[in-house]
Amino acid sequence: MTKEWLKIIIAAAFEVVWVIGLKHADDVLSWIVTIIAIVISFYALIAAGKYLPVGTVYAVFVGLGTAGTVLSEILFFDEPVDIVKLLLIGTLLIGVIGLKLVTSNEEKKQEVEG
Amino acid sequence: MAWIWLVLAGLFEMTGVIMINQLHRRRDIWSALGLAAGFGLSFVCLALAMRTLPMGTAYAVWTGIGASGGAIVGILWFKESADWRRILFIIIILVSTVGLKLVS
Description:
The structure holds two protein chains of two kinds. Chain A is built from four helices and no strands.
């Protein structure tokens, strides 16, 4: 079980790498790194979903990915800290995580009923 | 213009996710090609949006459109449950997205 959660953390870490790549890559090498990060990130995400509920996996993944990208742009790329923007990203995140968790519960219910 | 690229990126992401479901059901080459094209175009549009938009904002909105759009398509076309909690979270995502558009 711990191994599966580790896969989600790896998926989220590579997610942040490719998001940074999409914005900042400017030569062949950095684009290759970006594409490799996309592949690793999705592969780890799908692998984690095999043994854990997909809705939960996706919710944790999105939470880590969003926090990681917002933090890294503030820490490494000197993006100004805008409280209103951070709050709105927070509520958006609540929406996505909530939606994924509610949907995964429904899938389980349908499986039991079906 | 950046916001148009971002919305397009979200829509292509949804297309990719729908194709994943198709691939599970049909296992044909067209679903696989649709999947690759959907995600490929989505990443290109996201990169274009990020030329002017901050990375964290663009990523959050991209994810939000993918998640809420996927749920809306599921409810409208695939007869998924229109539970009030799902509707509420979709509204929260859309309101936050519009808010981010207004402050950026």
